[in-house]
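Quick one:
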Amino acid sequence: MNYYENKEITTRAQTDHSVKLNNRKNLEITGVKEVDSFDNEEFLLQTVMGYLIIRGQNLQLKNLDVAEGIVTIKGKIYELSYVDEDQQEKAKGFFSKLFR
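Output:
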């Protein structure tokens, strides 16, 4: 593999975004830029498509691959919700106050 092929893969990983949910128990998300906060009931992820809030019960971070932007979460998933761009700062401020 040469330098240009490697660069193409890196760019693709940063721009693609997918969410795969199996039996409401295993969630795999690609295109994750940052995990802002998480606990056993709620995750706040910054993805290439905006902020994503995951709510559920007994949530656990099973895999975090920062280089590829892949996050795997295990637990009972109740809700997946995207925050629109005009509400991103509001969501980030709310969660930063909540998790101080």
